[in-house]
């Protein structure tokens, strides 16, 4: 049985494809899917519970990402499972592609589906209705999750940027070397002038004292 589903989400194609390749996050968007464990980076074990017509079935099985090309945004996925409590089984091979649109991205999933057991007797029409309902709900949840993750993203560069430091002050201009050489010379001249002045003052006083002494002796 070949099934094809397509939906549009308001997200850049690269962003949408990267999200769809994150099985842990996508699993939370698919109604009835419960992811149990990752067997390796591309293989996952889980369960699917879904209502098909008048019956509710539960499958337990494994899904594998066989290939994923982020350049062409095309991936192939394989899934197989057994129905709990009966002999029913499901096997699916799907090809998913993401292409840009005027408002975001179009995701197309083409599935080759093989069923046995109770569900297989209900016909393609009933199974297509169930698939369409699940795809519609899943696409809405994926779009909402992508929009929320983009809105809450904080630029790492803005958080980790070091505080801006003020530019260092320019060095003080060096004193004029010629002025430094003149200062000692000025000091020497001043000191010499002081010595000569004191000699004249004290010399004149001494001469007057000598003349006075000679006069008294006469």
Automatic annotation (TrEMBL):
<dbReference type="Pfam" id="PF06240">
    <property type="entry name" value="COXG"/>
</dbReference>
<protein>
    <recommendedName>
        <fullName>Carbon monoxide dehydrogenase</fullName>
    </recommendedName>
</protein>
<dbReference type="InterPro" id="IPR023393">
    <property type="entry name" value="START-like_dom_sf"/>
</dbReference>
<dbReference type="InterPro" id="IPR010419">
    <property type="entry name" value="CO_DH_gsu"/>
</dbReference>
